[in-house]
Amino acid sequence: EPEVTQTPSHQVTQMGQEVILRCVPISNHLYFYWYRQILGQKVEFLVSFYNNEISEKSEIFDDQFSVERPDGSNFTLKIRSTKLEDSAMYFCASSAGTSGRRYEQYFGPGTRLTVT
Amino acid sequence: EDKVVQSPLSLVVHEGDTVTLNCSYEVTNFRSLLWYKQEKKAPTFLFMLTSSGIEKKSGRLSSILDKKELFSILNITATQTGDSAIYLCAVDVYGYSNYQLIWGAGTKLIIKP
User: In which domain, by residue range, is A38 found?
Assistant: First the structure.
């Protein structure tokens, strides 16, 4: 069964460093998302991406963040100058373009980011 | 402000019991409600509900939506230890982009053998 994959599974970085979180969505999906979940808290929407551009972003997704689809398969989240409060589990998700299935989002296993 | 509230926050039952998890919402321009199961890491999709009164069923899990009273329930019958997880409810609304969900805080379900 096709699945969303994410690398790395865990990344530790120092405050102020840049990190890139990588995701490979399901191959025939057209909508891509990043979410984060701070330990013990709600899942929070960061950004959605369709047709090679950002469709929607939340207040969390400020200038520190950027997303890219550098090729036909990868979808990346870059965090510039990480802060302690960026420590969280980051989930990538994708959904199909067909009507009725757009909202059936499939999540990757997550990348745990720890900023020290 | 749009919000999604789940109850209870946590629930501990014995294997074989039936549980009902609740999700209520106050949103403008409701479009659909989704249930996810989150075990160790990523949420996995369970159900999407758009119409009132139509039960969605998958094995021992079922869910129904009441758009008049603005809530949904997720039922799990004959629970097993593998059902232990956090169950997340999310609502999709018009007015936001097509692609953003409003999430509840989740119900942590623990099934004791």
Answer: 5-115
